[in-house]
Amino acid sequence: MKKPLPICLSLLFAGLLLAGCAENSAPPDGINTSDTKAGWPEKITIVQMPDEGNPDAGTSNDAFRTAMEAALGIEVEELEAFEYAVGIEAMRAGNLELLLVSPMSYYQAKTLAQIEPLVTTATNGALPYKTVFVTRAERDDINSLADLRGTTFAFVDPASSSGYMYPKAELITELGLDSAQLEKPGYFFETVTYSGKHDSSLIGVYMGDYDAVSVAYQTIDQLHEAGIINKDELKIIGETEIIPSACYIMRADLPQDLKDAIRKFYLGYNDTAYFEMFYGDPNIRYVEAFDSDYDVVYEMVQLLGIEES
Q1: Contact 80/16 with Cβ under 8 angstroms?
Q2: Global confidence as pTM
Q3: pLDDT in tens, 21-38
Q4: At what angle do helices 62-72 and 256-268 cross, to 10 degrees?
Q5: d(CA 206, CA 217)
Protein backbone atom coordinates (compact mmCIF):
# COMPACT_ATOMS: atom_id res chain seq x y z
CA MET A 1 0.00 0.00 0.00
CA LYS A 2 2.82 2.45 0.70
CA LYS A 3 4.97 4.04 -2.00
CA PRO A 4 7.62 6.69 -1.43
CA LEU A 5 7.17 10.15 -2.88
CA PRO A 6 9.86 10.84 -5.50
CA ILE A 7 12.23 13.66 -4.61
CA CYS A 8 11.80 15.31 -8.02
CA LEU A 9 8.91 17.74 -7.65
CA SER A 10 7.73 17.16 -11.23
CA LEU A 11 7.00 13.54 -10.26
CA LEU A 12 5.33 14.49 -6.97
CA PHE A 13 1.93 13.00 -7.70
CA ALA A 14 2.87 10.25 -10.18
CA GLY A 15 1.60 6.77 -9.38
CA LEU A 16 0.97 7.32 -5.66
CA LEU A 17 -2.78 6.72 -5.29
CA LEU A 18 -3.30 4.15 -2.56
CA ALA A 19 -5.97 1.56 -1.87
CA GLY A 20 -8.50 2.13 0.92
CA CYS A 21 -8.45 0.33 4.24
CA ALA A 22 -11.94 0.48 5.71
CA GLU A 23 -15.63 0.54 4.91
CA ASN A 24 -17.24 3.80 3.82
CA SER A 25 -18.87 6.00 6.43
CA ALA A 26 -21.47 8.73 6.10
CA PRO A 27 -20.16 12.28 5.78
CA PRO A 28 -20.86 14.74 8.59
CA ASP A 29 -24.11 16.68 8.32
CA GLY A 30 -24.34 20.37 7.58
CA ILE A 31 -21.99 20.82 4.60
CA ASN A 32 -23.42 21.76 1.22
CA THR A 33 -22.48 19.09 -1.34
CA SER A 34 -24.70 20.25 -4.23
CA ASP A 35 -22.28 22.03 -6.59
CA THR A 36 -18.67 23.12 -6.57
CA LYS A 37 -18.66 26.66 -5.22
CA ALA A 38 -17.17 29.63 -7.02
CA GLY A 39 -13.40 29.73 -6.77
CA TRP A 40 -13.10 26.18 -5.47
CA PRO A 41 -10.77 23.78 -7.33
CA GLU A 42 -12.30 20.73 -8.94
CA LYS A 43 -9.96 18.55 -6.87
CA ILE A 44 -7.92 18.87 -3.70
CA THR A 45 -4.88 16.75 -2.89
CA ILE A 46 -3.90 15.51 0.55
CA VAL A 47 -0.37 14.23 1.05
CA GLN A 48 -0.05 11.95 4.05
CA MET A 49 3.24 11.62 5.85
CA PRO A 50 3.62 8.69 8.25
CA ASP A 51 3.10 10.24 11.68
CA GLU A 52 6.26 9.61 13.75
CA GLY A 53 4.09 8.99 16.79
CA ASN A 54 1.79 6.67 14.88
CA PRO A 55 3.00 5.68 11.39
CA ASP A 56 -0.35 4.12 10.45
CA ALA A 57 -2.12 7.46 10.86
CA GLY A 58 -0.85 8.71 7.51
CA THR A 59 -2.08 5.76 5.50
CA SER A 60 -4.60 6.45 2.77
CA ASN A 61 -8.16 5.40 3.59
CA ASP A 62 -10.99 5.16 1.07
CA ALA A 63 -13.72 5.59 3.69
CA PHE A 64 -12.29 8.92 4.79
CA ARG A 65 -11.62 10.13 1.24
CA THR A 66 -15.09 9.14 -0.01
CA ALA A 67 -16.79 10.85 2.93
CA MET A 68 -14.76 13.99 2.32
CA GLU A 69 -15.67 14.02 -1.38
CA ALA A 70 -19.35 13.74 -0.50
CA ALA A 71 -19.07 16.49 2.10
CA LEU A 72 -17.21 18.95 -0.13
CA GLY A 73 -18.71 18.03 -3.48
CA ILE A 74 -15.28 17.87 -5.15
CA GLU A 75 -12.74 15.16 -5.89
CA VAL A 76 -10.25 14.32 -3.14
CA GLU A 77 -6.93 12.68 -3.97
CA GLU A 78 -4.81 11.08 -1.24
CA LEU A 79 -1.11 10.39 -1.76
CA GLU A 80 1.43 9.05 0.69
CA ALA A 81 4.98 10.33 0.92
CA PHE A 82 8.14 10.04 2.96
CA GLU A 83 9.85 13.40 2.34
CA TYR A 84 8.52 16.31 4.38
CA ALA A 85 10.64 18.79 2.43
CA VAL A 86 9.09 17.80 -0.90
CA GLY A 87 5.56 18.06 0.47
CA ILE A 88 6.28 21.50 1.89
CA GLU A 89 7.80 22.66 -1.39
CA ALA A 90 4.75 21.38 -3.27
CA MET A 91 2.51 23.35 -0.94
CA ARG A 92 4.61 26.47 -1.44
CA ALA A 93 4.31 26.00 -5.22
CA GLY A 94 0.52 25.69 -5.02
CA ASN A 95 0.48 22.02 -6.07
CA LEU A 96 -0.88 20.67 -2.80
CA GLU A 97 -3.76 21.66 -0.53
CA LEU A 98 -3.37 19.56 2.64
CA LEU A 99 -0.33 17.98 4.28
CA LEU A 100 0.23 15.93 7.45
CA VAL A 101 3.34 17.23 9.21
CA SER A 102 5.38 16.51 12.30
CA PRO A 103 5.95 19.31 14.83
CA MET A 104 9.38 20.10 13.36
CA SER A 105 8.00 20.09 9.84
CA TYR A 106 5.17 22.37 10.97
CA TYR A 107 7.82 24.91 11.89
CA GLN A 108 9.56 24.43 8.53
CA ALA A 109 6.29 24.75 6.60
CA LYS A 110 5.36 27.89 8.52
CA THR A 111 8.74 29.36 7.65
CA LEU A 112 8.78 28.42 3.96
CA ALA A 113 5.14 28.47 2.80
CA GLN A 114 1.87 30.29 3.43
CA ILE A 115 0.03 27.71 5.54
CA GLU A 116 -2.55 27.46 8.30
CA PRO A 117 -2.85 24.78 10.97
CA LEU A 118 -5.96 22.65 10.44
CA VAL A 119 -6.46 19.80 12.92
CA THR A 120 -4.51 17.54 15.22
CA THR A 121 -5.33 14.86 17.79
CA ALA A 122 -5.26 15.27 21.55
CA THR A 123 -3.23 12.06 21.79
CA ASN A 124 -1.48 9.67 19.38
CA GLY A 125 -3.18 6.58 20.75
CA ALA A 126 -2.33 4.21 23.57
CA LEU A 127 1.36 5.09 23.86
CA PRO A 128 2.69 8.61 24.50
CA TYR A 129 4.50 10.32 21.63
CA LYS A 130 8.05 10.77 22.90
CA THR A 131 11.60 9.78 22.03
CA VAL A 132 13.44 6.99 23.79
CA PHE A 133 17.17 6.28 23.75
CA VAL A 134 17.78 2.60 23.12
CA THR A 135 20.70 0.18 23.28
CA ARG A 136 21.17 -3.58 23.49
CA ALA A 137 20.06 -5.07 26.82
CA GLU A 138 23.45 -6.74 27.39
CA ARG A 139 25.33 -3.46 27.15
CA ASP A 140 26.21 -3.14 30.83
CA ASP A 141 28.41 -0.16 29.98
CA ILE A 142 25.48 1.93 28.67
CA ASN A 143 22.84 2.73 31.28
CA SER A 144 22.35 6.50 30.98
CA LEU A 145 22.73 9.32 28.51
CA ALA A 146 26.13 10.15 29.98
CA ASP A 147 27.27 6.63 29.10
CA LEU A 148 26.75 7.43 25.40
CA ARG A 149 30.07 9.28 25.30
CA GLY A 150 32.37 7.55 22.81
CA THR A 151 29.63 5.39 21.26
CA THR A 152 28.37 5.05 17.70
CA PHE A 153 24.95 6.69 17.60
CA ALA A 154 22.12 7.08 15.10
CA PHE A 155 19.57 9.85 14.80
CA VAL A 156 16.76 9.38 12.27
CA ASP A 157 16.70 12.53 10.14
CA PRO A 158 17.38 16.23 10.77
CA ALA A 159 13.74 16.96 9.79
CA SER A 160 12.39 14.52 12.36
CA SER A 161 10.91 15.74 15.63
CA SER A 162 11.19 12.52 17.63
CA GLY A 163 14.15 11.17 15.69
CA TYR A 164 16.37 14.25 15.90
CA MET A 165 15.14 17.53 17.36
CA TYR A 166 13.83 16.29 20.71
CA PRO A 167 16.61 13.77 21.44
CA LYS A 168 19.30 16.27 20.47
CA ALA A 169 17.75 18.88 22.77
CA GLU A 170 17.61 16.32 25.58
CA LEU A 171 21.31 15.53 25.20
CA ILE A 172 22.26 19.20 25.11
CA THR A 173 20.23 20.23 28.14
CA GLU A 174 20.92 17.20 30.33
CA LEU A 175 24.63 16.88 29.59
CA GLY A 176 25.54 20.49 28.86
CA LEU A 177 26.77 19.74 25.35
CA ASP A 178 27.42 22.17 22.50
CA SER A 179 24.66 21.96 19.88
CA ALA A 180 26.99 22.97 17.04
CA GLN A 181 29.56 20.33 17.97
CA LEU A 182 27.36 17.40 18.99
CA GLU A 183 27.32 15.61 15.65
CA LYS A 184 31.01 16.03 14.92
CA PRO A 185 32.96 12.76 15.27
CA GLY A 186 34.93 12.60 18.48
CA TYR A 187 33.24 15.51 20.27
CA PHE A 188 30.83 13.39 22.33
CA PHE A 189 29.91 10.45 20.13
CA GLU A 190 32.53 8.46 18.27
CA THR A 191 30.36 8.80 15.17
CA VAL A 192 26.84 9.98 14.34
CA THR A 193 24.69 8.46 11.60
CA TYR A 194 21.30 9.45 10.16
CA SER A 195 19.40 6.24 9.43
CA GLY A 196 16.52 7.85 7.56
CA LYS A 197 13.75 5.92 9.33
CA HIS A 198 12.84 5.01 12.90
CA ASP A 199 12.65 1.31 12.13
CA SER A 200 16.05 1.44 10.40
CA SER A 201 17.58 2.95 13.54
CA LEU A 202 16.01 0.38 15.83
CA ILE A 203 16.92 -2.55 13.61
CA GLY A 204 20.43 -1.12 13.37
CA VAL A 205 20.97 -1.09 17.14
CA TYR A 206 19.30 -4.48 17.44
CA MET A 207 21.73 -5.93 14.87
CA GLY A 208 24.73 -4.22 16.45
CA ASP A 209 25.34 -1.65 13.72
CA TYR A 210 25.03 1.18 16.27
CA ASP A 211 25.74 1.24 19.98
CA ALA A 212 22.61 3.32 20.63
CA VAL A 213 19.82 5.18 18.85
CA SER A 214 16.97 7.60 19.48
CA VAL A 215 13.56 6.61 18.12
CA ALA A 216 9.86 7.25 18.65
CA TYR A 217 8.68 5.13 21.57
CA GLN A 218 6.02 3.37 19.46
CA THR A 219 8.66 1.94 17.15
CA ILE A 220 9.72 -0.69 19.68
CA ASP A 221 6.30 -2.31 20.03
CA GLN A 222 5.59 -2.00 16.31
CA LEU A 223 8.70 -3.95 15.30
CA HIS A 224 8.27 -6.42 18.15
CA GLU A 225 4.68 -7.17 17.15
CA ALA A 226 5.79 -7.54 13.52
CA GLY A 227 8.31 -10.18 14.60
CA ILE A 228 11.27 -8.13 13.39
CA ILE A 229 12.88 -7.68 16.80
CA ASN A 230 12.57 -9.11 20.30
CA LYS A 231 12.14 -6.06 22.50
CA ASP A 232 13.41 -7.99 25.52
CA GLU A 233 16.86 -7.81 23.92
CA LEU A 234 16.78 -4.01 24.05
CA LYS A 235 16.68 -1.50 26.90
CA ILE A 236 15.69 2.15 27.23
CA ILE A 237 18.30 4.36 28.89
CA GLY A 238 16.58 7.74 28.59
CA GLU A 239 13.58 9.56 27.17
CA THR A 240 12.32 13.00 26.23
CA GLU A 241 9.24 14.92 27.30
CA ILE A 242 5.96 14.31 25.48
CA ILE A 243 6.01 15.71 21.92
CA PRO A 244 3.04 17.59 20.40
CA SER A 245 0.97 15.50 18.02
CA ALA A 246 1.38 15.77 14.27
CA CYS A 247 -1.10 18.05 12.54
CA TYR A 248 -2.68 18.66 9.19
CA ILE A 249 -1.91 21.97 7.55
CA MET A 250 -3.59 23.64 4.57
CA ARG A 251 -2.64 26.33 2.10
CA ALA A 252 -3.57 29.75 3.41
CA ASP A 253 -4.55 31.03 -0.05
CA LEU A 254 -7.46 28.61 -0.51
CA PRO A 255 -10.94 30.21 -0.61
CA GLN A 256 -12.08 30.91 2.95
CA ASP A 257 -15.36 29.03 2.55
CA LEU A 258 -13.44 25.98 1.31
CA LYS A 259 -11.08 26.14 4.29
CA ASP A 260 -14.09 26.41 6.59
CA ALA A 261 -15.73 23.40 4.94
CA ILE A 262 -12.56 21.30 5.16
CA ARG A 263 -12.14 22.17 8.84
CA LYS A 264 -15.79 21.37 9.56
CA PHE A 265 -15.42 18.00 7.88
CA TYR A 266 -12.35 16.99 9.89
CA LEU A 267 -13.84 18.16 13.18
CA GLY A 268 -17.10 16.33 12.48
CA TYR A 269 -15.60 13.07 11.22
CA ASN A 270 -16.59 10.36 13.68
CA ASP A 271 -16.01 6.97 12.04
CA THR A 272 -14.94 4.89 15.06
CA ALA A 273 -13.49 2.16 12.83
CA TYR A 274 -11.18 4.73 11.22
CA PHE A 275 -9.84 6.02 14.54
CA GLU A 276 -9.51 2.50 15.94
CA MET A 277 -7.53 1.42 12.89
CA PHE A 278 -5.16 4.36 12.65
CA TYR A 279 -4.87 5.51 16.26
CA GLY A 280 -5.68 2.36 18.21
CA ASP A 281 -8.51 4.12 20.06
CA PRO A 282 -12.08 4.50 18.75
CA ASN A 283 -12.63 7.48 21.03
CA ILE A 284 -9.95 9.70 19.46
CA ARG A 285 -11.24 12.55 17.31
CA TYR A 286 -9.67 15.42 15.41
CA VAL A 287 -9.48 18.71 17.27
CA GLU A 288 -8.66 22.15 15.93
CA ALA A 289 -4.93 22.90 15.72
CA PHE A 290 -3.46 26.27 16.59
CA ASP A 291 -0.08 27.83 15.91
CA SER A 292 0.43 28.19 19.67
CA ASP A 293 0.32 24.38 20.00
CA TYR A 294 3.82 24.38 18.50
CA ASP A 295 5.41 27.19 20.50
CA VAL A 296 7.66 24.58 22.09
CA VAL A 297 9.04 23.80 18.64
CA TYR A 298 10.02 27.42 18.07
CA GLU A 299 11.79 27.41 21.44
CA MET A 300 13.64 24.22 20.56
CA VAL A 301 14.69 25.59 17.18
CA GLN A 302 16.35 28.48 19.01
CA LEU A 303 18.02 26.08 21.45
CA LEU A 304 19.42 23.95 18.65
CA GLY A 305 20.37 26.86 16.39
CA ILE A 306 18.48 25.40 13.45
CA GLU A 307 18.59 27.56 10.32
CA GLU A 308 15.22 28.82 9.03
CA SER A 309 16.01 28.34 5.36
Answers
A1: yes
A2: 0.71
A3: 333 344 444 444 445 587
A4: 140
A5: 15
